[in-house]
Amino acid sequence: MISPMTISNVGKQSFFDCVKQSGDYFSLQHGLQLISGGRLGNGWISSAVLGNSPSAVIDFFQSLSKGDFGGAASSGGGEAATRWGGKAAVASASNVPNVAIAAAGAASLRVETPALTASARVAFQFKTVLPTGLLARAGAEGLNLGLEAVGTVKDPIDFAVSSISALVCGITR
Description:
Layout: H1 15-25, H2 28-35, H3 44-50, H4 53-66, H5 69-93, E1 99-112, E2 117-130, H6 132-171
Antiparallel strand pairs: 1-2
Helix pairs in contact: 1-4, 1-6, 3-5, 4-5, 5-6
């Protein structure tokens, strides 16, 4: 059963903490944690991709003001990764070359029996190209499309939730 968010301490926290807490509570990440019983959605990538963007921005500035540069880098880096990570991957993947593999050689085979002796010499040449560049570009395009799709769904939810949270947190002050 999903427990309702308690707002008993709303008046005791700052306006920005109130907005951040409610934004985090109603994020896609928290929804994933709830429906999975806490097994999914707990890592940095889940936070970056599914967390509430306005809450991450608040966390970034709060961390900076406290001198917590690691916290600021984590929240800011997560937002940057979801906003521009796909585009950066596409740009980087265009520089990944295909890998050519070539091998050549010869082998001799000699078979001797009491009645017969036979020998053969076999030459071989092997050339192929592994499509690493093509695979890198396809993977980068997939990542970019996925992040854009998540942003298209997530951003309206995040900003609507944070706007309502700001209104409620402002009224309760």
